[in-house]
Structure formats: structure tokens, C-alpha cells
UniProtKB/TrEMBL annotation:
Compartments in which it is found: Cytoplasm
The organism's taxonomic lineage, starting at the top: Bacteria, Bacillati, Bacillota, Clostridia, Lachnospirales
GO molecular function: 3'-5'-RNA exonuclease activity; magnesium ion binding; polyribonucleotide nucleotidyltransferase activity; RNA binding; transcription coregulator activity
UniProt record similarity statement: Belongs to the polyribonucleotide nucleotidyltransferase family.
Region (Disordered): 690-715
UniProt catalytic activity: RNA(n+1) + phosphate = RNA(n) + a ribonucleoside 5'-diphosphate
Residues of the S1 motif domain: 623-691
Domain (KIX) ranges: 223-302
Transmembrane segments: none
Keyword Lipoprotein included in the entry's annotation: no
Protein species of origin: Murimonas intestini
Protein name per the record: Polyribonucleotide nucleotidyltransferase
């Protein structure tokens, strides 16, 4: 018989059904938040996976389109590969939970979240985060939880917990905080330049709410939780460590890792492994453990050097940033480019501008976001770390890093009205030794400015690390961690922002949470470093956006037409608009409110397209002067086309001042002629005159001069 548990969470009811469905999973929580329904399950293999030196955790977030009443597109009518949102949600579920599994646990574990219905007021992503934590906590899988997660928004300076979809649309903050009973274990944020103090307030307000949810989960675990199963430990035998230290002393290991050159350090470690393999040639049971043992030996050495001796592997001070460099325009012909280098981390970002019609369409569960005008993508090829392997497309890490940079830059982008372009930035990792995601933010900010995108402010990113001791107050925060400090440290705290405030945060940790002093110091340290990068490095490469887009970038002219005239511009089955495009070579986008964007590289042809649209959408009035093309000749006159789909007639009596007997005596097909509108004839057709153009132009010139004189007299 199943049990149901409920609590009020941010003004809505959260209900958890246990033992109702998925009974064969190690743990299952049937989650209901409002009318959002998610099935969260946790399963583990019976035995450890052989031949691995990591914990094989998989997190899945399955978006079913039936949850929002949609049928998938395409021929198969079936959900395909995970969307970007699903991948990012899987990562945000993974990050707070992974550190709470035993470090020597090698059994495969899968956390699956099936989204079955979506209430716009109750986030399915948050529901899945809570569901995974509950399913794992009540299962027999070893897990030092539970965790709880809260989303925070901010409208007019007021914090809002677990905001609705409508509130998110106008919020200046999108923050997710995960907590254990005592500490904050994960932070993910996008923000409109939120000050550091306000961000800290929001983080710990969410942490307090998380404690209420954890008490609720504790009650469920107490009544429904299974006894945790025993497992085969994959820890390195202590006698192996002792034998290694006899061959490679701690002082020798310190010399091996104490260098700022990644290749040198790797060569030193490789030599140590070869030495150990030779020494243990007769101990076959130890040979397969050498890599993991040396890794842990390095880790202990680096952590001791940093925490006790305040020595970093590359010799820097605790708060010192690696050597920095920035430049722009290194790639010819692209719309914008910039490169940012921090030590052995180097990113080149290329910006591409296009009409709004090339914005990315999104087919997902969020009804409010159906397209994406700004796209940031991040690539991490194997050569950037000196390795060789085939490219298989972006993985979850690459998608996550791209999304983080995108989130950091969105707050400074111009509005569509200010800059009617779709924008794509692609960050190519040339070299990697720590914090490439933050380098991509710096490079992208400069690349956008070099492309002439009028961003409001420059954005920079930096990462802090952490090494902890035995107690909460025994720790050291490191500014600008390199790869080794990331691998062997306890935290990767990434913060991006402007001079005014934070635009994005992503925090990954390997321990059971952070105290408030650590978080406050990390945020303060990243602000100090961010100011240095913005003022002393990026500003010297490019201080502000260029005044116009580059030579090879498309140009866009925006005009407004009467929405009632959209059909005239488009024409039957798109005939009129396609004719304009064919004749001028431009691209044209029209929105439902009558905003027309004309995109091209030839200013003359763009102006011609604008004139065609102006003629099509203008009601002809007597006295207007046009240039038209002769498309048909009759005995009584000639028909002229002034724009696709817009025609009028010049009667034979209005062609020349003198009498003519045949239209062909003056006009031939294809002639371009100037005419003045006379209004409509008896048959309702637009009537024009060629012979009255000169007189009309003189009258209009005289009238214009008189108006100018009258205005000058009034002044």
C-alpha cells in the first residue's frame, strides 16, 4: 500500500507518493507540484563496474510532449534526443547529488525523471530535482542526503521563491540553490547585474527554505526508507600507498607537480608511473591500481602544499590571476572575433549576425520560450588538452559551458528594437588548463563589441577554487584555478558579471557543502578579479562596441507598415514578397505587428526593396510621383508596374504633351518612366500621367520653398 505525503511549498502543494508506481526501482517518488507531475526513480547495479576509477552516475530528465498537450514533429512522431534544456536540467540534478555518494562506490547508478504533466506555475525542473533527492534518499543506495532545491526570482527588488512561468519572464534573477542539512551544495544563477550583497541574501534565503523541505523528506525517509545496502569498496589499499611512498617520497612528488607547465607536469607523472610499474612488476594485483594511486598521491600532495604551505603548483599567490592577454579581429571576413588568454587557457570566439528569421526555434515544454535570438555555443576539441580522439559533437559538458556563457551575456544584449539581428557566438577552445567557460565569456563579450553589437556593458568571468581541511574554518579560497587545482580541489565557483553586478553563477563542489563565509569570500574574490580583467585587460583590447556592424555583416533596415497591409506585401502564396526578394537579393522578415526588417549587404538594393514595400503599402493619391516599368501596351495606353503586385495605367492622351497616334511611338516594353498620380479612373484603376510630371515637380518645388520661407520668417 502506497503512502502519500504533502507540504505547502511557496504557496503551492507538493505531494510525494511512495510505493505507488515503479516498485522494481531501488527508490521511486511520484511527484506532484501543483499540477506538474514527475516520476523520479533511482536504480543501482548489484555489482561494481570493473575497470573504472570513477563513480558511474547517470542522470536523465525526459521531456514528454504529451505533458503539455503536444504531438512531436517529424515523421516518427516520437521524442528524439534530449533537448538542451533537458541536458542542462540533468546537470543541475547531478551536481548537488554526486558528492554525497561514497567516493569508493563503483556501482552504476541511474536517476531518471519522467515529466508527465506540466503546470506553468510549478517548475518541472525543480520537481525533478526534489524527486531525485527523495527517490535516492528512500532507496537502499548509499547516499549521504537528502538534499533540497529552491528556485529564486526577483521582481522590483523583492525575492520570490519557486516563481511561476509568468514571474520568471519579468524576473531580474533566476537562481537555483541546493542544500544539505547544514550547507549550500550547489548554486546556479542568471541575473540582470544583481549586486553581490543581494545575491548572497537570495542564496541564503533559499537555503533556509531548503531546510523546511529537508525536514519533510526526513519524515518520508523515516517511514519509508530502505536500509542502505553494503557494497564492494574500491579504495586503494593502504599498503600500496606505503610502498609507493618508499619509492617516490613526498618531496619528490612535490617537485613533480610544482610547475605551471601542464606538459612538464604530465611528463613528470608519467615517469613516476613507469618507475612504479617496474618496481611492482611482480605484484600483478597492484599494477592496475597504479594510475588511481598516483592520482590520489598527487591530490594529497597538492592539497597539502596549498592548505598548509600556501604554495600553488605554478608558484602564484593565493589571490593572483595567471598572465592575461586579449585581442580582437584576428579572424578575417567573419562579422566579429576576439581571443582571450589566461595562462594555458585560450579561447577564440567568433560572432555571426543574421536576420531574425534565423533565430533558433525551440520545441519544448516551455510555452513562453519558443525561439532564441541569441545563441552561444562552446567547443572543446581534444587538441586543446594535447590529446587525440575523434570529434563526436558537443557533449553535456560543452552544452553546459555554452549555456553558462549565454546566460552571462543575455542581460547586456540590446533589445530587438535596438538591434534587429539574430546573434550567434561560437567559442573555440584553442588551449585548456582550467576555467575555459569563463574565458569564453570574456572572449565573447569582446567579440560582440568587435562585431558592432551595441551591448550595454562588457562582461567578464573568473573562477575560484577551494581546499578544505578537517574543520569548517580550515580552508583556503584560490583565485583563478588552473586544471590541477580544479581536479584536486573541492570547488569550482564560476562568477560572471559587469562592473555593476553578477550576470551568472555556476558552482560545482566535491565536498558536502559550503558554509556562508566560504561563499561570501568566493563571491568577493571573483568580483575583485573581474574588475581587474575588465579594466586592465579587456578594455585595452576594445573599450566599447563599434558604431556599426562590419563590412561583411548583413545590414538591416527596419520600417513599420500598417498590419492590415501585410497581406499586400506578402501577396497570394507569397508571390509579391518573393518577387521583391528575387529582384533585390535581400531577406525580408515581417512580424504580426507590421515591423518589417530588410536584410542585405548592398545598401542600394536594400533601399530599392524599402521603396517597393513603401509603394505597395501606400494608398495612391493625386500628386504623388513614381517611377514605373512598362509591362503592357494597349491601343488606349500603357500599364506600368511600380512594385510587385502594384500596377497603374497611363492613358495615351497623358503620355506626351503633343498628340500621338500610337503608344509605341513613345513607349516600349521594359521602359522605366516617371509619372504623376491622377487618382482613379471611371473603372477604379489607378491613373497616371507622364506629360504632367514636370509641371507637378515645379509646383511641389515652389510649395516647398514657400514653406521653408514661411518657417524662416516665423523664426
Amino acid at each position: 500500500m502506497y503512502k502519500s505525503y504533502s507540504m505547502e511549498l511557496a504557496g503551492r502543494t507538493l505531494t510525494v507518493d511512495v510505493n505507488r508506481v515503479a516498485a522494481q526501482a531501488n527508490g521511486a517518488a511520484f511527484m506532484h507540484y501543483g499540477e506538474t507531475t514527475v516520476l523520479s526513480t533511482a536504480t543501482a547495479s548489484e555489482k561494481p563496474r570493473e575497470g573504472i576509477d570513477f563513480f558511474p552516475l547517470s542522470v536523465e530528465y525526459e521531456e514528454k510532449l504529451y505533458s503539455v498537450g503536444k504531438i512531436p514533429g517529424g515523421f516518427n512522431k516520437r521524442e528524439g534526443k534530449a533537448s538542451e534544456n533537458a541536458i542542462l536540467t540533468s546537470r543541475v540534478i547531478d551536481r548537488p547529488m554526486r558528492p554525497l555518494f561514497p567516493k569508493d562506490y563503483r556501482n552504476d547508478v541511474t536517476l531518471n525523471n519522467l515529466v508527465m504533466s506540466v503546470d506553468p506555475d510549478c517548475s518541472p525542473e525543480l520537481t525533478a530535482m526534489l524527486g531525485s533527492a527523495i527517490a535516492t534518499a528512500i532507496s537502499d543506495i548509499p547516499f549521504d542526503g537528502p538534499t533540497s532545491s529552491t528556485q529564486v526570482g526577483m521582481i522590483d527588488g523583492e525575492l520570490i521563491f519557486n516563481p511561476t512561468s509568468a514571474q520568471k519572464a519579468v524576473s531580474d534573477l533566476q537562481l537555483t540553490v541546493a542544500s544539505t542539512r547544514e550547507k549550500v551544495i550547489m548554486i546556479e544563477a542568471g541575473a540582470n547585474e544583481v549586486p553581490e550583497a543581494k545575491m548572497i541574501e537570495a542564496i541564503f534565503a533559499a537555503h533556509e527554505l531548503n531546510q523546511e523541505v529537508i525536514r519533510f523528506i526526513d519524515k518520508i525517509v523515516a517511514e519509508c526508507g530502505k536500509e542502505k545496502h553494503t557494497y564492494t569498496s574500491c579504495a586503494i589499499p593502504e599498503e600500496l600507498f606505503a610502498a609507493i611512498k618508499e619509492i617516490v617520497t613526498p618531496e619528490q612528488m612535490e617537485v613533480a607537480v610544482f610547475t605551471d607547465h601542464k606538459q612538464t607536469r604530465e611528463a613528470n607523472i608519467s615517469a613516476i608511473k613507469d618507475k612504479l610499474a617496474e618496481a611492482f612488476a611482480d605484484k600483478e594485483e597492484w599494477l592496475g591500481l597504479i594510475d588511481e594511486a598516483v592520482y590520489q598521491y598527487q591530490k594529497k600532495t597538492v592539497r597539502k602544499m596549498i592548505l598548509k604551505d600556501h604554495k600553488r603548483p605554478d608558484g602564484r599567490a593565493i589571490d593572483q590571476i595567471r598572465p592575461l592577454a586579449a585581442e580582437i579581429d584576428l579572424i578575417p571576413r567573419v562579422h566579429g572575433s576576439a581571443m582571450f588568454t589566461r595562462g594555458q587557457t585560450q579561447i577564440c570566439t567568433v560572432t555571426t549576425l543574421a536576420p531574425l528569421s534565423e533565430a533558433q526555434r525551440i520545441d519544448g515544454l516551455d510555452e513562453m520560450e519558443t525561439s532564441k535570438r541569441y545563441m552561444h555555443q562552446y567547443n572543446f576539441p581534444s587538441y586543446s588538452v594535447g590529446e587525440t580522439k575523434p570529434s563526436r559533437g558537443p557533449g553535456r559538458r560543452e552544452i553546459g559551458h555554452g549555456a553558462l556563457a549565454e546566460r552571462a551575456l543575455i542581460p547586456v544584449l540590446p533589445s530587438v528594437e535596438e538591434f534587429p539581428y539574430a546573434i550567434r557566438t561560437v567559442s573555440e577552445t584553442f588551449e585548456s588548463n582550467g576555467s575555459t567557460s569563463q574565458a569564453s565569456i570574456c572572449a565573447s563579450s569582446m567579440s560582440l563589441m568587435s562585431a558592432g553589437v551595441p551591448i550595454k556593458k562588457a562582461v567578464a568571468g573568473i573562477s575560484c577554487g577551494l581546499v578544505t581541511g578537517e574543520t569548517d574554518d580550515d580552508y583556503l579560497v584560490l583565485t583563478d584555478i588552473q586544471g590541477l587545482e580544479d581536479f584536486f580541489g573541492d570547488m569550482d565557483f564560476k562568477v560572471a558579471g559587469t562592473h555593476e553586478g553578477i550576470t551568472a553563477i555556476q558552482m560545482d563542489i566535491k565536498i558536502h557543502g559550503l558554509t556562508r563565509p566560504i561563499i561570501e569570500e568566493a563571491i568577493a574574490r571573483t568580483r575583485e578579479a573581474r574588475m581587474h580583467i575588465l579594466d586592465e585587460v579587456m578594455a585595452h583590447a576594445i573599450a566599447e562596441p563599434r558604431n556599426e556592424v562590419g563590412k561583411y555583416a548583413p545590414k538591416i533596415i527596419q520600417i513599420q507598415i500598417d498590419p492590415q497591409k501585410i497581406g499586400d506585401v506578402v501577396g497570394q502564396r507569397g508571390k509579391t514578397i518573393n518577387t521583391i526578394i528575387e529582384q533585390t537579393g535581400v531577406k525580408i522578415d515581417i512580424t504580426d505587428d507590421g515591423a518589417v526588417s530588410i536584410c542585405g549587404t548592398d545598401k542600394k538594393e536594400m533601399d530599392r526593396a524599402v521603396e517597393m514595400i513603401r509603394i505597395i503599402t501606400t494608398d495612391f493619391e493625386a500628386g504623388q510621383i513614381f517611377v514605373g516599368k512598362v509591362i503592357s501596351i494597349k491601343e488606349f495606353g500603357a500599364f506600368l508596374e511600380f512594385a510587385p503586385g502594384k500596377e497603374g495605367m497611363v492613358h495615351i492622351s497623358k503620355i506626351a504633351k503633343e498628340r500621338i497616334n500610337h503608344v509605341e511611338d513613345v513607349l516600349t516594353l521594359g521602359d522605366m518612366v516617371k509619372v504623376v498620380c491622377l487618382g482613379k479612373d471611371k473603372m477604379g484603376r489607378i491613373s497616371f500621367s507622364m506629360k504632367d510630371v514636370e509641371r507637378t515637380e515645379k509646383e511641389q518645388q515652389k510649395k516647398s520653398e514657400q514653406q521653408a520661407a514661411d518657417a524662416e520668417h516665423l523664426d
